[in-house]
Specification:
This protein has about 375 residues and is an alpha/beta fold. Helices cover about 50% and strands about 10% of the residues. It is built from 16 helices and 10 strands. The strands form 2 sheets. Strands 1-2-3-4-7-8-9-10 form an 8-stranded parallel β-sheet. It is globular and about 55 Å long.
Length: about 375
């Protein structure tokens, strides 16, 4: 079992005497900077961050999806992705003072055209994630992967994952083929998740329609954030946010492009009676209830747009490891110089609203 925090200088208890000694030696600034990076206080407090956008690549998944993952990288795929191990993930958590990662399977998901194979792969990945969490108490939780667009298989798997494996929630992709989450086909799954008051984490993918729109621009640059916006608007104008009010949704990458276009969507939909009737409390009301994690988005433009849309309580820490490093979000947040209460909320407290079990134990 891993150590619950880093072996860096800050991981050990820093006493008042040690701090004053460092200060006298003009080294306090370095000490404070290191502690801030690792999320560890001068009292020897354990790390506090909770990363809700953190991926795993179980061996069984790599065996089935390796070539698809490489293809989706479109020439950019850090070596650490295909070399993922639990030990590498724990080292990343420890290095950045992150207490817990809620892990998930990223795009391309588990469904590649064979229904039974998708069901088998989803089960194998969920069993693996549950063992990972059990082997490292307090360090990992997981969002169960579902074999969508197979609704029957998804219902069976979510029952197993939530009831037997005790998953922290389920993970969706923004679209499956050319169907987005507001599509009527997915209503039985959303209804079941609503009855369970589940947490649903939504990760973007590239829809079939739009991967080659501009051949010389990788679709991961633009289509992933756009597809998050498509998924949110499909749920919004299907009336799903109103009907399935007990689901707690988390959307990736600060909502994609949504914060930049929400004013346009709200204004124009009010002039369209059919659409307006599906969002009786208003577009802004529904979107402000959602949660948004900030992997790849801890920068001034993205955060300004997101914070103009939602209250601080709806923003969560995310990294996109192993595609990206946790340190990118840590450093980005530090550079934003947010109020300390907002930063504490983003790094930990807001996630505890969704995952209260993490208030106890190693987390």
């Amino acid at each position: 079992m891993s150590q619950p925090w880093s072996s860096s200088a800050c991981a050990a208890t820093v006493t008042r005497r040690q701090f004053l000694t460092a200060l006298a030696a003009s080294g306090a600034n370095l000490l404070l900077a290191d502690c801030a990076l690792h999320g560890i206080g001068l009292g020897g407090d354990p790390p506090r961050r909770i990363d809700v956008h953190h991926h795993i690549l179980p061996p069984v998944y790599l065996a089935e999806a390796r070539e698809r993952i490489i293809a989706q990288g479109q020439g950019f795929l850090p070596e650490r992705v295909l070399q993922w191990t639990p030990e590498a993930a724990l080292a990343e958590l420890d290095e950045t003072g992150t207490a817990t990662a809620i892990v998930s399977i990223s795009t391309p998901g588990v469904s590649f055209g064979d229904l039974q194979a998708a069901r088998h792969l989803a089960r194998a990945c969920n069993d693996y994630a549950a063992r990972l969490a059990s082997d490292h108490p307090g360090r990992f939780g997981f969002f169960a992967v579902l074999p969508l667009p197979d609704v029957e298989g998804a219902l069976r798997e979510l029952g197993y994952a939530l009831d037997v494996l005790k998953a922290d929630g389920v993970g969706f992709l923004t679209s499956y083929g050319d169907r987005w989450l507001g599509d009527d086909r997915f209503t039985p799954v959303l209804d079941e998740l609503d009855q369970r008051k589940a947490v649903v984490y939504v990760h973007p993918t590239g829809p079939n329609c739009c991967r080659e729109l501009i051949p010389y621009v990788p679709y991961v640059f633009t289509e992933l954030p756009h597809d998050t916006t498509r998924a949110i608007t499909s749920l919004l104008f299907a009336g799903a946010f109103g009907r399935f009010r007990a689901i707690r949704f988390i959307f990736s990458h600060a909502g994609g492009t949504l914060p930049m276009v929400v004013g346009r969507i709200a204004r124009q939909s009010r002039a369209m009676p059919t659409l307006a009737a599906r969002v009786p409390r208003g577009v802004e009301y529904e979107l402000q209830r959602l949660y948004y994690e900030i992997a790849g988005s801890a920068n001034a433009p993205a955060m300004a747009a997101l914070r103009s849309l939602v209250p601080p309580s709806q923003v969560l820490f995310g990294s996109d490891f192993p595609w990206a490093r946790l340190q990118a979000t840590v450093e980005g947040l530090a550079e934003l110089r947010l109020p300390s209460s907002d930063r504490r909320g983003i790094e930990r407290e807001n996630a505890l609203t969704l995952f209260p079990r993490l208030r106890t134990g190693a987390a």
